[in-house]
Write a structure and sequence with these properties.
Helix content: 10-25%
Structural class: alpha+beta
CATH superfamily: Cytidine Deaminase, domain 2
CATH topology: Cytidine Deaminase, domain 2
Length: about 160
Amino acid sequence: MKKKEVNLIFFQGILSELEQCDQELVNNAISSLKDAYAPYSGFQVGASILLENGKIINGSNQENVAYPSGLCAERVAIFYASSNYPNIKIIKMAISVQAVDFNINDVISPCGACRQVMAEYEENQNYPVQIILHSPNNDILIVDRVQDLLPFMFKSPHLKKH
């Protein structure tokens, strides 16, 4: 048996250190927080996607009393982008969070289901998707590709690349 290692390279900083276009994408994600429907968890998430054609797609989490019928902000944005702009690459995604009844002091990463969806879209488009994670105190964490968030993604042997 061989011991192997998975390395993760990421950037850490604050919102004001980002390039203007990335700050705007994060600000779109922050703005999307107001559209979150999270009466049960009080945990609001906003996501903004930059497409290859320059379009920005926003999404917010949508809960439902019949849990788990809701949907995370990341998947709302990705599915909207895929439905309305098929075959247009996702270049990057910014994700922001806030809570109604508790404090969030750290950068929060996407849930496992969102990571899997994001990774499959990245794999299908054969192009890395940069992920910018934003905390309520303006801390930023950036990975250059979704694969860094999910190094052992589930892959179907039947999936054919475009």
